[in-house]
Amino acid sequence: MDKNASAAPPLRNYSGVERAAVLMMLVGDDEAAAILQKLDPEEVRQLGKAMFAVADVSEPEVETVLDDFVGKARDRTAVGFDPRPRIESMMTRALGREKAESVLARITPPEDACAIDLLDWLDAGEIANLIEKEHPQIAAVLIANLDPAVGAQVLELLPDSVQPDVLHRIARLGPITPEAVETLKTMLSNRIGTGGQAQGVSLGGTREAAKIMSSARKATEARVMPKLFKIDREVARAIEEAMFVFENLLELDDKNLGTLIRNVDSDILIRSLKGIDETMRARFLGCMSSRAADGIRDELESRGPMRLSEVLEAQKAMIQIARNLAKDGTIMMGGGEDDYV
Questions:
Q1: Do residues 212 and 143 lie in contact, with contact meaning Cβ atoms separated by under 8 Å?
Q2: In whole angstroms, what is the distance from residue 39 CA to residue 17 CA?
Q3: What is the pLDDT of residues 251-282, one digit of tens each?
Q4: Angle at 174 between CA 173 and CA 175, to 5 degrees
Q5: For the range 281-285, what are the long-range contacts, defined as Cβ-Cβ under 8 Å and sequence gap of 24 or more?
Q6: pTM value?
Q7: Residue 272: how many other CB atoms lie within 10 Å
Q8: 242: how many CB neighbours lie within 10 A of its CB?
Q9: DSSP class of residue 276?
Q10: Is the CA virtual torsion 295, 297, 299, 301 positive or negative?
Q11: Gap between the Cα atoms of 295 and 299, Å rounded
Q12: Pseudo-torsion of CA 174, 192, 211, 176, nearest 10°?
């Protein structure tokens, strides 16, 4: 018997992720990159760490890993393999990458997605049909789970009479218990056909409601917000404040921004500009006469440090003045994207 063979170190017992790392080290860079693109961030992190750990893999260990891989592959029938790569390849060849990705995104939702997750695979009209006759609280939870732009579309497709109530409930949402999520999943599963174990989630809130309302059409905002003020003035005001922050004033064109500045008391304007950087400040001063701008600059320098609370209070006041001017038509906010009928 060969003494060298008898003295050979035992083969390392690789874990599953380390076996995958060995295989990744064997394929080309393009193939490895294609595989990594299909993994989620945590899987990429684990696999990358394992690849460093197996960098010193021996030739016998590589053969062992390959034999194990081939053996497991043979144990599976052709039907047992994931058909998606082949379908993706066929569709890409037939339709081109962009069109194929668009089609596949609609027909291949994740296998492990729960019912609420599957809402991301439905369009706004389909979701609105699902929840139109459900309790407003269910509609609120589901809309809060969507991307704000999609949520706004779904909200607009619901009956006008329920939109303010649903928006109010979105703003007041907090932690959702596992039991409540299970109820929602059961309702959706009956219509979509999926299941899974429920976990508690946290959805909604004033900012989420504001994002949804900001993504909606101006006509929807004009119809829903006054009704929401009647339901809950405090929540409506919080949503309104979250919808529009001081930096949004920079989106006004020079004419409208100049009109706003002329309608703001100089003390409010100075305190508002004290809390912003020089680039933003120059945008405001650029809409004023040279003499007026120089006066504001001198006043800003002479006042010295100012409390943040004073600055924020002044900025809120300036935002409210802007909203009032927009309501009476003196200035135009939102880039002129209001609806036409």
A1: yes
A2: 13
A3: 888 999 999 999 999 899 999 988 788 888 89
A4: 135
A5: 283/250, 283/257, 284/249, 284/257
A6: 0.41
A7: 24
A8: 18
A9: S
A10: negative
A11: 6
A12: 0
